[in-house]
Design goal:
The protein is mainly alpha-helical. It has one domain. Helices cover about 75% and strands about 0% of the residues. It is built from three helices and no strands. It has helices at about 5-30, 30-40, 55-85. It is elongated, with a radius of gyration of 17 Å. The chain starts with 5 loop residues before the first helix and ends with a helix.
Length: about 90
């Protein structure tokens, strides 16, 4: 059985996370009150932000999530390949 390609897994997860981040950011502009209430529910009532992100904030967040996806996907594939050999 062939192992999982770490680079492909990392790029795939980065693409998925980048897409979700863009969708979530668009939802923040379209439905700010609903998204704020959803966020409070997901984070035990903590209010994380009171303003919408700027274009610069969006760019920083997008780069951070894509980088996180690349590293996490590659690490997942390497661990998966190691464990699947046993």
């Amino acid at each position: 059985m062939a192992g999982m390609d770490a680079k492909a897994a990392g790029v795939s997860l980065a693409g998925v996370l980048g897409g979700w981040y863009a969708i979530c950011s668009a939802a923040a502009y379209a439905f700010p009150d609903t998204l704020s209430a959803l966020g409070r529910g997901m984070f035990h009532g903590v209010v994380l932000a009171t303003q919408l992100p700027t274009a610069g904030g969006f760019a920083v967040g997008l780069v951070a999530w894509v980088a996180f996806g690349l590293v996490t996907g590659a690490a997942f594939a390497k661990i998966y390949n190691h464990l699947s050999r046993k």
